[in-house]
Structures are given as C-alpha cells and as structure tokens.
Design goal:
Strand order of the largest sheet: 1-3-2
Distance between the termini: 50 Å
Order of helices and strands: EHHEHEHHH
Strand content: 5-15%
Largest sheet: 3 strands, antiparallel
Radius of gyration: 25 Å
Structural class: mainly alpha
Number of strands: 3
C-alpha cells in the first residue's frame, strides 16, 4: 500500500491534485484499489514519526488515501503529469513482457515434461545424455538474479 502523499511524489504532482483526480474518477477505483485510512490508522502511522507536530494547519486536513498496486497504476492513468504518463506506459510494458516470459517458459516446461516421460523407453546411456540436455535447458529458462552494482562511489585507479 502507498499513501496518497507518497504516490503523488512519485508521479510528480501535488497530493491535492492526486486526490482530486481520484475523486473525479471514483468509478475507476473499486475498494480493492483504494482505501481511505481511519482516524485510528492515521494516528498510528503518525505516531511512527516522532518529529511530527500537531496543531491547526500544520498537516493534513483530510484522512489520507492508501493505494494498492492496482490503484497506483490506475492513478497514473487519471493524472496528466509527464511523469505519471511515463510511469503508466512503463508499467504496462513491464506487465506485457512478464506475461510473454511466463507464457514462453510455461510452454517450454510442458514440452520438456512430455519429452522426459518418453525418455523411459530409451537405453541408459541415451537417458543420461538427455538428462544433461534437460538440465541445461532448465538452467537457461530459470530467471537469473541481475548483478547489482556496489553501493557508493568506486573509482578505477590505473597504475
């Protein structure tokens, strides 16, 4: 869940503008996309930050909204900032790519399972060779964790 103020900062708009866009497009935000925090929930969140002051006009006038991941994507579609538009396009492309990867790996996994079942009719040496091939294919189809850069500044010093 993301608070409206955090989501507004991500999309480069004011919290007030985000909430106004949501109110104008309420039909796009069913209960599983968006929740308005209760007073108790908001006070519990505020108590997590020791530096917050209380008083008239200091902070929020209304209780914050909390967006699920689907609500955050939908919010990008109702906002008109450049950043929100870029983010919505990025998210759609990421989901399409993920769907393509899952579909291709599922199909390949199914075909491998069929081939493995037919392996039982072959002699022992041929079975070992096929098992090696299957292991290599599985290694290629399992997602690899990307290498992460080291945190901080690094310099290449040449001698």
């Amino acid at each position: 869940m993301l608070l409206d103020s955090d989501l507004a900062a991500l999309y480069g708009v004011a919290t007030k503008a985000l909430n106004q866009a949501v109110r104008r497009n309420q039909r796009r935000f069913p209960p599983d996309f968006l929740v308005q925090l209760t007073t108790e929930e908001w006070l519990a969140l505020r108590s997590q930050s020791v530096t917050l002051e209380t008083g008239r006009g200091r902070y929020r006038k209304y209780l914050p909204l909390a967006f699920t991941e689907h609500g955050a994507i939908m919010a990008a579609t109702v906002l008109s900032s450049e950043r929100a538009i870029d983010m919505s396009i990025y998210v759609v492309r990421a989901f399409l790519r993920l769907r393509q990867l899952v579909a291709s790996n599922t199909d390949l996994t199914r075909k491998l399972a069929v081939l493995e079942r037919s392996l039982s009719t072959l002699d022992a040496d041929t079975r070992k060779q096929f098992q090696t091939v299957y292991r290599a294919i599985r290694a290629l189809t399992t997602p690899k964790t990307p290498k992460r850069r080291a945190i901080g500044f690094t310099a290449n010093i040449e001698s």
